[in-house]
User: What shape does this take?
Amino acid sequence: MALTRNADAVAPVRTSGPFSIWLARHASTAIASLGRLCRQPLSSLMIVLVIAVTLALPAAISIVVKNARSISGNWDNALDFSVFLQEGLSESEAAGLARLLEQRADVESVELVTADQALEEFKAASGFGAALDQLPGNPLPHTLVVRPGAGNTGATIELLQHEIENLPETALVQVDTAWVKRFHAILDIVRQAIAVGSVLLATAIVVIIGNTIRLDIENRRDEIEVTKLIGASNAFVRRPFLWTGFWYGLSGGLLALGLVWYGLYLLGGPVSRLAGLYQSNIAITSMSLAESAALVGGAVFLGLAGSWVTTARHMRRIEPR
Amino acid sequence: MIQLDNVTKRYPGGQEALAGLSLEVDKGEMVFVTGHSGAGKSTLLRLIALIERPTSGNVIVDGQNTRRVKRRLIPAYRRQIGMVFQDHKLLYDRPVADNVALPLIIAGLGHREASRRVRAALDQVGLLHKEKQRPETLSAGEQQRVGIARAIVTRPKLLIADEPTGNLDPDLSLEVMRIFRRFNEVGVTLLVASHDINLIDRLGCRRIELDEGRLQAEVEPWL
Assistant: This one.
């Protein structure tokens, strides 16, 4: 009990330590906050789950949209248009026109399907062979199958189509891209909706985390008061709550990532079966590493934002009485 | 060390806790503030701890006018003062050693240095063997000694205590006061609010008696 037994107890306390001490204190606060969450596993898990589902939803939809775009994008490139030529045009005239069109920069290739070839194909494909033989002549015109060059955009393809339509030799241009355009327009709307929805959901996450931390602050009100009474700054009492927000965000983000990956894994089988049926090599593009990092990073940011907003409001209000 | 200059504290509703109080506590002094409840003892300590600010007049602590301490700097100001409370104000979710370490952690001390000081402080109040226990397993007197250890672990020049023996029986009260006396002997200035005049008289310190926020009497020490 002798007061002077321990000499260094008499030396005054320095109020700030080196960076390594600051770092060590942060680490121990972080671990303490994590421990606090783990001691109430059920309620922590609920909040993490809410965050995860809220994040996984827009992430999953945007992956679906991305895949739908890339698949339909392939179709878009392969889309040729059929130019039905005027009746009475000779085969050599048709071939000449084909060569002429092929020289255009925005055209990759032109294939001439003569009336006779078309009839043969139709006979073979339709099964009406015998009936068609009864026809006095060939009712089909010569056809050019025009494949636009890869450098085209929607607008230039439309222009090309327009110019071909206006050629005197053309009877009809049939384009099958109209539905692809509509489909893309729908995808654009969905993407826009995801963007708007994501903002709303992000706000929801900030509110959820903020509210949870507000309850946490209320529960630890006495502790905060005592700590402030013996000289803790707002920043000091705030620190554990910011770490709580960080942990909520991180675990919610990681769980969301897991949910999305698991969902894609479940979709993988049916998609490859479908691709097999179409003899196509469609495969789902998963989230890239950067996208995954953005998802988790965004979740951490939202967690910190939620706790930051709440603690900023409440820490100043709680003062020793 | 402490200087009050015509200090008035009026609470909303017009109730006057301190009415033009002036007093002075020198460096190294140990002074008791007495008076029945509502006399303004607690308010005096709260003004010194900057939990409240005076309505008028100046409170000057260690050369600092509390009026000029900005809100942002109150934590740093409080760190210079050790505070002991009637209800101990310990944190019951952590062991004794962590309670005592709290001011050092707030001050940003390293772990090793902090635990050495914590042990020194607990040793001084005779509770080193209970450092790993939870506060609720300790008796009221022991809890108060933990509170004292926490107040002195940063080696403040000034220690203020509000009814530190209010919940203790006479023997434990005397023990707590003796601990205070020992700190005073190594140069710590103490201002202790108490109503236990019998006990105070045995210690032989200056006593300031308040009544309705005014200085009623000053009893000089007999030592």
